[in-house]
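Run folding on both entries below.
>entry_1
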Amino acid sequence: IEISSLILAGACGLILGKSWMFPGTYTRLEGLIRGAKDSLKIAFSLVLFLLIAAFFESFVTRHTEMPGWLSTSILSGSLVLMVWYFVVYPQRVKRSFEKAAEEAQPVID
């Protein structure tokens, strides 16, 4: 969990840098503010994952005689959790917003 959280934290920095360097039609300050909002959303969601990783590091992985099935299940569960929360769930939310926007448009005959 902590390695993928560090990678995502680096992506937050890239989002922030891209919004400042390439603001598009916005001013640099406005682009930076928009990028900071996007990157802070990701960074705040990483806090919970870092706390979970700290728990595992403190109480689970310090035991050297841990069975292989337990470490494999922790690793695979962590992978599934990260992929679901940062890949699958945002796509589902986006689809639900698109569906709601589509239903909200008036039908003109």
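>entry_2
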Amino acid sequence: MDDNNPNVNLGFLVSDVARLLRVRFNATAQKLGLTLAQARVVVHLSRNEGISQVALSAILEVQPITLLRQIDHLERAGLVVRRVHPTDRRMQQLFLTPASQPLLQQIFDVGTDLHFDAMTGLDAAQRAQLIAALSHVRANLAQAPAQVAAGSDNG
């Protein structure tokens, strides 16, 4: 395999696929009145209700001030509400409102359609193999920093 060829290099392929997924999602998300960034906030909040802005910004890998603007927009739209933390008045927790639930379902529907489009031409076994292989690569990379640190201690 020629790792210098961007058509077969893992990093280039994964990056290109991620970029194309973002472009396709953005085109559809605009019809929902959202940006991809806002849709990501809604989805992650659905999985982490009550999370702080700082913790959510870490999950999303954005600066807290960037997230603040997105939260402000979603709050004005009636999709997100901030509540004071019960034991730390300096911290606010983020929650979705009931009005966000239909939108959340639409976001998931867009994702399902995009997933279907991306996997067109692959049979069930190929789809399962692709997901398993990418999951394995992710696991390898997730544990790599610990292994690198352990290896540097031996040198």
